[in-house]
User: Which sequence fits this backbone?
């Protein structure tokens, strides 16, 4: 009841109300509580970095910046370098986005713009289901279905047609960067579709109607007006997918081959940061080994931070250009 | 309505008393190796049947975690597939002011397993062949070092695909400990550990990851625990022991390795029995240990743990074979019973 009586006083004069009355009305309390909630996100991030930083002191002092450029990872000799894992993480994430982005956005356009509403809603239900499947299930799917298919059909086919590229050369085990990228792509596509579809559907009707009234076809209005309008949101869905692809552990470790290698071939077995941490953490007895693994956690954090920053920069640049085009 | 609620409350109170009563029992916590976990959980269960007041909880978090937790003092005892090294012993001593003791409980073994189309029988492996394959120096199945020990087997001239564990594991420790003992190049270039820098091969996560990879990849070879191979009907090869005979691992040949090493076992039981002497000894065998602090501030806990170890060495050993673990030889049991007096 108290809230309804204050409604008329809200607006221009609300600033003049005393602190006490605002406190009594709950505004200040709500402000404080929501501020604490929002602040906790920053606090958790800072604490996370601090802990990773402190717990990796030994490894940081021993290897310094060489940690980032050393390929060797030898727990028996206590020599550690992150380069092969950084490489594997970036390559698998790139492969997965190269597959998932066109597929995901294409599917989202169909669901939001072209499909009948009932079909779109029904499919959305399945997509949300896919997003909720635990990653170990995707890993098992990878091991039992994707790996044999890759080894027996996809990899020989790629080698026969595109084998002149270093990307598709070398022995074909079925596991490796390419397979890990494909499994990751399957895992992140639902995120891209789900978020992009919502964003596309929230584009105002006037935008479409204006384009149609100017004589554009359905597809022209979708591709030239609706999609550019929703670009920021679509980019957001790609970030979400990227973050998931960078940090995915279980499914990747089951199909990537767990061999620290840097190879131009996507058929080669590799290793990712998240996978090596999951594999070696439980049985890491030496302090340096343990701390090197924690430092890898820090590296993964930085990598995610860096890639996210780059992607955001990309958005700022492209949205400015888009804005300029709209004004012209 | 009121009566139902009253009954419910009474029942709840009764349930709580039962729970409280049950919890009045002595609770002992341990953590560590996952390899002996099925054995330990069976033992703790059986032991509780005859000693209802003692409840032993065990978390199988891995040997590394077991050593860390017992050193931190967050559990009463630890368990490990590899003995603690001198640094770790010193860390424990520095933190607590007293030492920690190793007690072997059962034996495990690691066997080479392979998938070669057209080869169905048991292959024989010499130490040099195994080291050569895992070093990446022997690359074809019909290499003379393999073929020489397998007269009459038609080995293909196919590339060997090596598969190893990717997760840190006691299995890898035993396997690489063995290779380090029998091959100098392995010892100098690669070494031993729960995780190592593999010269060649693909990594599979867990025993199931390794066997899955081998089943899926023609001409591959890897290694798994004997118990895993036995319970999943995986065929595996024989390995030449230090007396020159090819031994296929089974519970008896693994116990024989411990018996062969019994005379040379040091008083602290920190010993590797890979490549043990003895005509019938399987060479890639190992103890797994309980890690028990020398001193307990709580006398009841101390007595309970000592009581359990005593039971485990005698009655407990009867349960080992039904779970495919190899039992301790008499010589080791006698020695451990003596060592138990050191726990105060």
Assistant:
């Amino acid at each position: 009841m108290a809230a309804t009586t204050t409604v008329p006083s809200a607006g221009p004069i609300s600033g003049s109300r005393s602190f006490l009355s605002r406190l009594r009305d709950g505004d200040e309390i709500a402000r404080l509580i929501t501020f604490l909630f929002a602040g906790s996100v920053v606090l958790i991030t800072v604490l996370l970095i601090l802990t990773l930083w402190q717990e990796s002191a030994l490894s940081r002092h021993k290897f310094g910046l060489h940690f980032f450029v050393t390929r060797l990872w030898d727990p028996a000799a206590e020599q550690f370098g992150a380069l092969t894992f950084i490489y594997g993480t970036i390559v698998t994430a790139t492969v997965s986005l190269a597959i998932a982005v066109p597929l995901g956005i294409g599917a989202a356009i169909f669901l939001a713009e072209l499909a009948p509403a009932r079909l779109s809603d029904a499919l959305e239900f399945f997509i949300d289901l896919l997003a909720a499947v635990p990653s170990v299930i995707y890993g098992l799917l990878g091991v039992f279905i994707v790996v044999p298919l890759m080894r027996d059909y996809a990899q020989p086919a790629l080698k026969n047609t595109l084998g002149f590229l270093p990307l598709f050369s070398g022995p074909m085990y079925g596991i490796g960067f390419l397979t890990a990228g494909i499994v990751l792509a399957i895992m992140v596509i639902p995120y891209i579709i789900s978020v992009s579809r919502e964003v596309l559907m929230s584009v105002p009707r006037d935008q479409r109607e204006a384009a149609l009234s100017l004589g554009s076809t359905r597809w022209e209005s979708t591709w030239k007006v609706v999609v550019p309008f929703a670009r920021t949101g679509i980019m957001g869905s790609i970030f979400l997918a990227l973050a998931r692809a960078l940090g995915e552990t279980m499914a990747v470790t089951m199909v990537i081959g767990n061999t620290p290698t840097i190879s131009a071939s996507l058929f080669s077995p590799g290793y990712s940061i998240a996978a090596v941490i999951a594999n070696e953490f439980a049985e890491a007895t030496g302090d340096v080994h343990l701390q090197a693994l924690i430092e890898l956690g820090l590296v993964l954090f930085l990598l995610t931070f860096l890639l996210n920053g780059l992607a955001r920069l990309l958005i700022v640049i492209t949205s400015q250009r888009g804005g300029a085009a709209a004004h012209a | 309505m009121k009566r139902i609620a009253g009954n419910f409350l009474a029942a709840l109170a009764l349930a709580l008393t039962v729970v409280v009563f049950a919890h009045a029992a002595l609770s002992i916590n341990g953590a560590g190796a996952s390899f002996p976990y099925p054995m330990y959980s069976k033992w703790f269960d059986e032991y509780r049947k005859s000693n209802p007041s003692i409840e032993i909880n065990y978390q199988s978090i891995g040997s590394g975690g077991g050593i860390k937790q017992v050193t931190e003092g967050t559990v009463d005892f630890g368990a490990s597939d590899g003995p603690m090294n001198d640094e770790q012993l010193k860390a424990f001593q520095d933190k607590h002011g007293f030492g920690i003791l190793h007690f072997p409980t059962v034996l495990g073994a690691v066997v080479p397993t392979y998938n070669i189309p057209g080869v169905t029988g048991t292959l024989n492996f010499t130490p040099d062949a195994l080291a050569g394959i895992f070093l990446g120096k022997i690359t074809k199945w019909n290499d003379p070092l393999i073929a020489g020990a397998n007269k009459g087997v038609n080995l293909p001239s196919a590339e060997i695909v090596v598969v190893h564990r990717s997760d840190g594991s006691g299995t890898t420790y035993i396997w690489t400990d063995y290779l380090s003992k029998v091959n100098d190049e392995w010892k100098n270039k690669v070494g031993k550990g729960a995780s190592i820098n593999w010269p060649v091969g693909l990594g599979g996560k867990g025993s199931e990851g390794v066997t899955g990879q081998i089943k899926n990849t023609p001409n591959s070879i890897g290694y798994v625990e004997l118990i895993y191979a036995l319970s999943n009907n995986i065929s595996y090869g024989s390995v030449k022991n230090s007396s020159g005979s090819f031994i296929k691992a089974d519970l008896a040949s693994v116990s024989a390795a411990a018996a062969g090493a019994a005379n040379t076992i040091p008083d602290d039981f920190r010993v590797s029995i890979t490549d043990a002497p003895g005509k019938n000894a399987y060479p890639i065998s190992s103890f797994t240990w309980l890690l028990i602090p020398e001193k307990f501030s709580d006398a009841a806990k101390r007595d309970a743990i000592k009581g359990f170890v005593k039971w485990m060495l005698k009655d407990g050993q009867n349960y080992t074979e039904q779970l495919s673990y190899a039992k301790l030889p008499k010589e080791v049991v006698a020695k451990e019973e003596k060592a138990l007096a050191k726990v105060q």
